[in-house]
Predict the 3D structure of the following.
Amino acid sequence: MTRFSQAVGILTAGGEFRVWSVIVSIFGDLAREPEDEISGALLSALTERLGIRPEAVRVALHRLRKDGWITTRKHGRSGHYRLSPNARETSRNARERIYADENRKTDRWHLLILPPMPQSERHDREKPWLASGYASLVPGVMLGAGAAPVQSGNFTFEGEVAEIPAWVKSANAPTELIAGYARLETSLASIGTPLLDAPLEIAALRVLVIHQWRRLLLRHPALPDRFYPPEWREAACRQRVVELLKHLPRPSLAELENAASQGG
Amino acid sequence: MTRFSQAVGILTAGGEFRVWSVIVSIFGDLAREPEDEISGALLSALTERLGIRPEAVRVALHRLRKDGWITTRKHGRSGHYRLSPNARETSRNARERIYADENRKTDRWHLLILPPMPQSERHDREKPWLASGYASLVPGVMLGAGAAPVQSGNFTFEGEVAEIPAWVKSANAPTELIAGYARLETSLASIGTPLLDAPLEIAALRVLVIHQWRRLLLRHPALPDRFYPPEWREAACRQRVVELLKHLPRPSLAELENAASQGG
């Protein structure tokens, strides 16, 4: 077993992939610019190395095209894919968080307090705020970074967090995310520092590391470490991800297409 | 009808007095220092001028003594009353707010957010905070002036209020207080600027003005005007109270005792 397949085995031991989501990770890492395209051949080469069946890739590409995430260009018998403008923007925003060297350090926050209302209605009112990165503190009270929005119709308050009691830290840290980060930390430690030469292996492992990291990261709001209980291993994982990516420098798309066209 | 009795008539037109509460106002205005004593004769002279029956005064004094608000000293056949140390402190704290030239102008606030809990339990948890001057914004969220308490077990946040939507202003202004201030503003305007000579009349009218003012003022938290809807007349009442008290300079206790002992 090569160091590469060992590393892939460790990082995928946790369970099933959502293939469309892995493809999102591939584009987010390797094809960021408007002119960046990935060929069907390169996509196959990368996903194959992650143990994903070609049929699953076809289904996922169909879904991503239907959702407006990617666009396709046919060139002879082969397809070429790129991110749609919307997807590129979403991807760019997420990237700031995924690739940052450190967790957010903001000291300036605001609270947004909704008027009292029935629970079902409140869920609807909270949804867009939470989707845009607000953290829910208690029902109807959300924490956002920086200055408060203007004229939102809610009570808003700008300043600094003074006390973060244990019950807030627990609420910020769902059990499955605590467990997820703990597992990821162990996996990332187990794979050591693989010295790889083949650009396709470097790219595939990069994408896999990023994918497993962002799967957890983007499921919770961006809050500094002090908002979480001590068993929250986000910062440890981030440190290890940053370190690994340094040892797996991103190959250029040209290099990868070239390798893929030569069958790896 | 004298200008004095006209003024008393206007200010008491609203309805019943709670006599013990009027006596609290008398002590709060006229007998603030540890050594300050009010004789039974002076109390009778003042309350009589406000149309309160001697029997009601006796009942109220009994209650205030039982509650530890006043202490009594017998001197021959007559009683002498003073505030208990606890009452003096409570009275001093309230005085800062009652006699201030302007409403609170604080810009620095903190929010105190309780953990989610059943409503009945929450009421119990909120009670002491509200009693100590916090404003309730929505269930479980309270606003306090200045720095946050240390280690309260709640989520606390320090800063400035950014947006105060109409629903918060309405919640801060119960209908009966809006109406109360509007009535008081009208009454205070109607009595004009009575020029009184008799120290007992000056003192009685002072006490009555203060009493009607603090009855409303101490029923809501001290918040700046911008926290209230436009129909909230607290600031207008305060301005008029300050003006009236300037025209009714507080007589000394000695002067008043002297007048009372001479039958007014």
Notes: The radius of gyration of chain B is 20 Å. Chain B touches chain A at residues 109-111, 113-116, 137-141, 147-148, 150-165, 167-168 (CB under 8 Å).
